[in-house]
């Protein structure tokens, strides 16, 4: 029997275990809950491997909150450190901040303004879901302000029809990778 690749194993787990919930957190949104995928040992391992594959970077940025779970594991696999990109009010000043629109509201993300040395660092941005792209675009903007070079972004699930890929393409440097394990 031919062994499945990490991407195939990840897609199988995502297909089997993702839960779709109508009208959460607001009416009209179909919320895609990846919690069961990440809670499954084989699913989590396959997702982490498939998101990490081929990236050579100096740091991983994991986005609050679900991106933290993946970002830490991916950074460890790649042998680099992880930067937690926090929702507003969690980090002590001074911070760099960026406010953006989501599928269901607005939010602000922050990173430390001076406590990290990201100047020239190649950074991979990790999150669970790409929807409108606002979250990843805001993260890319914060990292650029800190002097980092965004090497790419990788997510588990890209939602169709919300313009997220185009938004992220215009926010990332030319040639930066945009990887989604499943689109739908
Ligand atoms: O592409 P976008 O439209 O920006 O949406 C994607 C973001 O939305 C979700 O996070 P959310 O802000 O709901 O926060 P959470 O991770 O704390 O649940 C998801 O985890 C992504 O971070
Ligand atoms: N529909 C959705 N499901 C899960 N996470 C999301 N983030 C933004 N939109 C989402």
UniProtKB/TrEMBL annotation:
Its main location: cytoplasm. GO terms for molecular function: adenine binding; adenine phosphoribosyltransferase activity; AMP binding. Keywords: Cytoplasm, Glycosyltransferase, Purine salvage, Transferase. Residues 54-157 form the Phosphoribosyltransferase domain. It is found in: Cytoplasm. Pathway: Purine metabolism; AMP biosynthesis via salvage pathway; AMP from adenine: step 1/1. GO terms for cellular component: cytoplasm. Its EC number is 2.4.2.7. It comes from the Bacteria. InterPro entries: Ade_phspho_trans, PRTase-like, PRTase_dom, UPRTase/APRTase. It catalyses: AMP + diphosphate = 5-phospho-alpha-D-ribose 1-diphosphate + adenine. One of its GO terms (biological process) is purine ribonucleoside salvage. It is an enzyme of class 2 (transferase). Catalyzes a salvage reaction resulting in the formation of AMP, that is energically less costly than de novo synthesis. NCBIfam families: PRK02304.1-3, PRK02304.1-5. Homodimer. Belongs to the purine/pyrimidine phosphoribosyltransferase family. This is Adenine phosphoribosyltransferase. It comes from Gordonia crocea.
């Amino acid at each position: 029997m031919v062994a499945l690749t990490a991407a195939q194993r990840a897609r199988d787990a995502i297909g089997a275990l993702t839960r779709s919930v109508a009208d959460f957190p607001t009416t009209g949104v179909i919320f895609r809950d990846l919690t069961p995928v990440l809670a499954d040992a084989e699913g989590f391992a396959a997702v982490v491997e498939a998101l990490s594959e081929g990236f050579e970077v100096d740091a991983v940025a994991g986005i609050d909150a679900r991106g933290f779970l993946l970002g830490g594991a991916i950074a460890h696999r790649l042998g680099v450190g992880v930067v937690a990109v926090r929702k507003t009010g969690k980090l002590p000043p001074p911070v760099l901040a960026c406010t953006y629109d989501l599928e269901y509201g607005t939010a602000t993300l922050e990173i430390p303004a001076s406590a990290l040395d990201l100047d020239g660092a190649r950074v991979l941005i990790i999150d669970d879901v790409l929807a409108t792209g606002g979250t990843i675009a805001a993260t890319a903007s914060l990292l650029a302000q800190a002097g980092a070079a965004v090497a790419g972004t990788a997510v588990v699930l890209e939602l169709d029809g919300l313009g997220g890929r185009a938004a992220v393409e215009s926010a990332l440097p030319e040639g930066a990778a945009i990887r989604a394990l499943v689109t739908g």
